[in-house]
Structures are given as structure tokens and as C-alpha cells.
Specification:
Layout (H helix, E strand, L loop, with lengths): L1 H26 L7 E10 L9 E6 L5 E5 L5 E8 L1 E8 L6 E7 L4 E8 L5 H21 L3 H14 L4 H13 L3 H14 L5 H19 L3 H14 L4 H13 L3 H14 L6 H12 L7 H4 L4
Parallel strand pairs: 1-7
Antiparallel strand pairs: 1-4, 2-3, 2-5, 5-6
Helix pairs in contact: 2-3, 3-4, 4-5, 4-6, 5-6, 6-7, 7-8, 8-9, 9-10
């Protein structure tokens, strides 16, 4: 009996370390059960794979860092990551970086797809901003807030130097505000961008025509003639540009040029108040008879 009790006592003592060892094996973070596997693919918004993307994982509990790079198929993987919660960052030059949380469970293959969005190029940002100012200028002009509209269009062309429509609108409203020199400058830029477009030519013709009228009133005939030539180059079908050219060429005794522009005037504006006098003058020019032009010219002032 004594021996049996002794054996039981020894057996009980020997069993304690065995339990400890077994418990230690179960709870150890190094066993396979605590490991997780991750398989990921990095794509763009068109579902195309992105190679050489840099993937960074930070294990929240331990602070351990893990780094990967996607292969040519945009894939990355690991079969021995500690289970738990992670902070993930994915980066690729030319794309906006991705940041998010990830939870990996023991003995489970976690498959993920990360979509990266391309960063907007600086030029694209400027174009979008320019378009916003253009829309703002259009809205302001519709409310007859021309000064504010002019400022918006000016900002649009500063941001986008080839913004044809903004140059045209800016030139139009500058002309309406009687800022002819500024209007002429921006409209010439618009015409440089699109030489075939008629709108800037029409306004430039009008600007030069108005300046020519002022110069005639100031008796600066040579300067007025140059302005009218420019106006005619922009718009040959401007009736009163032809009318004034006829007048100035007549004053300079340039008969053929005077006849050419008087005839054009009568064709373009046959019912104009000056038409009757121009017909008389034109007849006299063709007959080489001297005449005056004061009556015919008075209608344009």
C-alpha cells in the first residue's frame, strides 16, 4: 500500500513539466497555426496589372515591417506572415499611393486586389483650373459683370496659354470696355493660335476701324489709312471699311484704289445713306472729273 501511494506521488510530480511543455508548444507564436499567406495583385482602373509597385506591410501588434514588389504580372505574395492586423501602403511612381488596413488570419490564404489611380499631371491640373475660370467668366458676362468676367478670362489664359476661346472672349469684352490696345493684343494671340477662325478677325477689323475714324477726325490721314488697311485685311467685306478706304485713296488721288473700294461699298451696302453720294463720286472718278467728297463722308461721322 505504501509503495502504491509512493508511485502515485512520483507520477503526479513527473506529470507537471509535461503539461507545461505541451502548453508552451500550443501557445508559441512560432507554430504554423499563427502564420498566414497573402497573395495580392496591383491593378490600374482599367484592370491592367502594374509591375514594380512597392508594397509595405506593418504588423500592428509587433511593429514588424514587410516589403514586396509586384512582378511583371502585378502580383506579390508571402506564405509566412504573422497573423493579425496590418497597415498596408502601396506605391508606384505616377500613381496616387494607396493606404488601408488588412487582417490576416492563421492558416488562411488571403487574396487581395489593390487598384491604383494615376496622378493628374500638372498640365492637366492647370487645364482643369483654366476651364473653371472660363466657365466663371462666361457666367459673369451673362450677368453683365464685365470687369469680373475679364479677370476670370485673363486667369484662364494665364493657366492655359493656348486657350483660344478664352482669348476671344477676353478680347471681346475688353473691346466692349473700350480697352482697344489690350483687346487687340489678346485677339492677335487668338488669331495666331487659329488663323482660320473668323471671330477674332471680325473684332480686330472693328478695332482698327474705330481707331481709323478717330485718326481721321484728328486729321491723321496716313495713320488712319494704315489702320484701315489692317481692318480690310482682317475683314474685306466690312462695308464702311471700304467706304473710308475709298475716301482716303480719293484724297491721295489714288484713283484705281478709290474706285475699287467705293464699288465694294456699294455692293455690300447698296441702301446705305452714303450710297447716293458715293455713286456720284464714283461716276466722276471713272470720268476723271474732279469732285469733292465732303457730302459723302459726312454720313459716317
Amino acid at each position: 500500500m505504501y509503495l502504491a501511494n509512493k508511485i502515485k506521488h512520483v507520477a503526479a510530480i513527473c506529470s507537471v513539466p509535461l503539461i507545461i511543455v505541451i502548453w508552451g508548444i500550443i501557445s508559441s507564436p512560432l507554430v504554423g497555426q499563427s502564420k498566414a499567406k497573402l497573395e495580392g495583385t496591383v491593378l490600374n482602373i482599367n484592370k491592367e496589372t502594374i509591375p514594380q509597385a512597392e508594397v509595405q506591410l506593418k504588423h500592428e501588434d509587433s511593429g514588424q515591417m514587410f516589403y514586396f514588389k509586384s512582378n511583371k504580372e502585378g502580383e506579390f505574395s508571402s506564405s509566412s506572415l504573422p497573423a493579425g492586423n496590418y497597415n498596408m501602403t502601396v506605391e508606384k511612381e505616377g500613381y496616387k499611393s494607396y493606404s488601408g488596413e488588412l487582417k490576416l488570419r492563421p492558416n488562411i490564404v488571403q487574396k487581395i486586389k489593390i487598384t491604383l489611380v494615376k496622378e493628374r499631371a500638372e498640365e492637366q491640373k492647370r487645364e482643369e483650373e483654366a476651364l473653371a475660370y472660363f466657365k466663371k467668366g462666361t457666367e459673369l458676362s451673362g450677368k453683365n459683370k464685365l470687369e469680373e468676367a475679364i479677370q476670370a478670362f485673363q486667369k484662364a489664359v494665364e493657366l492655359k496659354e493656348d486657350f483660344f476661346e478664352a482669348y476671344v472672349n477676353l478680347g471681346t469684352f475688353l473691346f466692349q470696355q473700350q480697352k482697344d490696345d489690350e483687346a487687340e493684343k489678346v485677339l492677335l494671340k487668338a488669331l495666331e493660335l487659329r488663323p482660320e477662325e473668323s471671330k477674332p478677325k471680325e473684332i480686330l477689323a472693328a478695332i482698327n476701324f474705330e481707331k481709323a475714324k478717330i485718326l481721321i477726325q484728328e486729321n491723321k490721314m496716313d495713320e488712319a489709312l494704315e489702320r484701315l488697311k489692317q481692318s480690310y485685311n482682317f475683314r474685306a467685306d466690312h462695308a464702311y471699311v471700304n467706304f473710308l478706304l475709298g475716301y482716303l485713296y480719293h484724297e491721295k488721288e489714288m484713283k484705281e484704289e478709290a474706285i475699287k473700294h467705293f464699288e465694294a461699298f456699294l455692293q455690300l451696302a447698296p441702301n446705305a445713306p452714303q450710297a447716293k453720294d458715293v455713286k456720284k463720286l464714283l461716276e466722276s472718278l471713272k470720268n476723271s472729273s474732279p469732285n469733292t467728297f465732303d457730302d459723302a463722308h459726312s454720313g459716317i461721322r
